Amino acid sequence: MAIEKVRNWQLGRDMDYPYEEARPKKQYAAVFNINKCIACQTCTMACKSTWTYSKGQEHMWWNNVETKPYGGYPQFWDHKLLEKLGPNKWSPGTGHYGSVYSGKTIFEAAPLTEVGVGYLPEDKEWQSPNIYEDTPTSTNPEKGPDNSVDLETTGGGGRGGAHTTWFFYLQRICNHCTHPACLAACPRKAIYKRQDSDGIVLIDQKRCRGYRKCVELCPYKKPMYNLATRISEKCIACYPRVEQGIEARCMAACVGKIRLQGLKNSLPEDAEQNAENPMNYLIHVRKIAVPLYPQYGTEPNIYYIPPRWIHKKFLYQMFGPGIDEALKVYENMDEELLGVLSLFRSTRKIIERFNINSNQAIGYDAKDHELIRVPIDEPVIVRPPRYHNTS
Ligand code: SF4
Ligand code: SF4
Ligand code: SF4
């Protein structure tokens, strides 16, 4: 198979990929604030009750929320690949996060006859989507998770420090990657990325023959095999809603208000020119949200505000070298940033542009119509004692 060089700005370098670089005009993207998720699974059920309630889809959860470090759907999905991929090496450089990835991506680590490094989960690994729910791990406060490296920590608790005992929730959907592994793996060319509109990655259900090569190569294990129809399916980014300017079901349903979805520019330099777009602003300008396992090399488009209380070494492995800056920005919030974060779940319409004015965050749609106006600092109102529950 021919190998092309494509740009991967998350890695700070070009990388091998089986197809030419093809970036969409606009890219479906989302920011998830891990610090606020309560693992209520409303997002999970919103997706399930919309798209995967039919025969053959019983074990299919296009959106899932798992407890890290032990939880996973399918079980061990990330551990297994990290072991196969080898060291997660970053060197100082001119990349977006001040680093260049010097390890191998899943495409570059491929054996000669394969497109990339992957594996097919066993059936039993799909059966317990919320295994190890709320199960913490414990870490020596003086040492890292592997008990070998000192960490920046105030020790056990306290604001700004990593906790001795910890877990966190990881919200997962298909990343609608810029260089999708599922698409690269498909021998039927049944998977495509929408170039003209939103970069959403879809499986053509008529072309798919159920070879499961996408299931094998997707590093995030988000294509799933339907035992009844014998073809593969995956998150469709709720494209019928997105086409109408409405956010996806799992986003709009989020109880913890941790999710904001939109359409961003695909390259950082274009995003910086369009900084009033909330996705561009959070991901590219303020760098408060970072990609999940960027070292895999697919340039995923779901971004995370990392959790503040977790040991840095674990976060570094999971989110790459952008975590230091992301945490610093999150812990030193200014009015503009707080305003954009206040827009999370203020409307189910996609916010194309924001403006901060007189203590208000204002969101506009793609036609520049005002969608929503929210106060940044909400006034505190003390009720007079005549109300029976105030004294
Ligand atoms: S609905 Fe929101 S708060 Fe609840 S589990 Fe999903 S992402 Fe977390
Ligand atoms: S997350 Fe997996 S299924 Fe989704 S686009 Fe990326 S490689 Fe494909
Ligand atoms: S974007 Fe839509 S299809 Fe994808 S996980 Fe969320 S609700 Fe499900």
Give a structural overview.
The chain is α+β, with helices and mostly antiparallel strands. The protein has one domain (4-342): Alpha-Beta Plaits, CATH 3.30.70.20. It has helices spanning 42-51, 77-85, 181-185, 213-217, 239-242, 249-252, 268-273, 278-285, 312-319, 323-331, 335-342, and strands spanning 4-8, 13-17, 27-33, 64-68, 90-92, 99-101, 137-138, 165-166, 168-172, 191-193, 201-203, 224-226, 231-233, 259-264, 290-291, 302-305, 353-357, 360-364, 370-375. Strands 14-3-16-15 form a 4-stranded mixed beta sheet. It is globular and about 75 Å long. The model is unreliable at 144-159 (pLDDT under 50). It binds iron/sulfur cluster (SF4) (3 copies). One iron/sulfur cluster (SF4) binds next to helix 3.
Question: Helix and strand layout, with pairings?
Answer:
Blueprint (H helix, E strand, L loop, with lengths): L3 E5 L4 E5 L9 E7 L8 H10 L12 E5 L8 H9 L4 E3 L6 E3 L35 E2 L26 E2 L1 E5 L8 H5 L5 E3 L7 E3 L9 H5 L6 E3 L4 E3 L5 H4 L6 H4 L6 E6 L3 H6 L4 H8 L4 E2 L10 E4 L6 H8 L3 H9 L3 H8 L10 E5 L2 E5 L5 E6 L16
Parallel strand pairs: 3-16
Antiparallel strand pairs: 1-2, 3-14, 4-9, 5-6, 7-8, 10-11, 12-13, 15-16, 17-18, 18-19
The chain binds iron/sulfur cluster (SF4) (3 copies).
